[in-house]
# Entry
Amino acid sequence: MKEIKNLFSVKNKNILITGSTGYLGSYISEFFAENGANVLLQGKNKKKINALYNKLKNKGYSVEPLVFDLCNEYEMINEIQKKVKKNINILINNAYSGLSGSTFTSNSEDFRKSYEIAVVAANNLIKILYPRLLKSKKIYGDASIINVSSIYGFLSPDIKIYNALINANPPFYGAAKAALIQFTKYTACEFAKDGIRVNCISPGSFPSENFKKNYPKTIKKLVKKIPLKRFGNPEDIIGPLLYLSTTSSKYVTGTNLIVDGGFSSW
# Structure
């Protein structure tokens, strides 16, 4: 019987995390690096990626920078072929970029960009890394893909809590995250024959410090909707991610793990 520490170990595993410099992405990247993983830090802003890389490298962690635009397939292929020499044990599709708003403040480009980075980029990256994931499965017995969605992928935000519709959680965000949940289930079934697991995690609510500072009235209303009566902190997402990343979840695929303090249980 395996020891518990081995069931949840990511030591020496190669993990590619998209959106590594974001609010949650930077915390996730540092956690996995701190726990012995070889972390590939992805982002399109070279200055931010290099800053995170230097910070973690100076702590003695095994990290590598990857700078490319997830919406540029050519850049993606070129950078990975040039710099990624290892197999990939774990891929975490965490990146997202988009504004706030409502139906009437959203435009076609908002929907396109949201879907591009949440779903199209995830699909392209999986196709590129598939041979490396497959090899990892054959060598180590496990390979895992984790897509980061949101509770707004299956719930509608309560727009009454916002002081203005321009600041609301927008329709294109939820639509893209809903598509990502479906994409997770589809690819989980498709890749099951190869033993590559694909799962999804849906956090909520995890407001950034800037959002808390800029919208105190909205924050006060929002926290009342959470049964645990507090917001999620970056460390709250680590346990679920670690579970889906390791052999502790080797019989789990095609699932959407909800991490929301009970928000969706009302």
Q: What stands out?
A: The first strand starts at residue 14 and ends at 17.
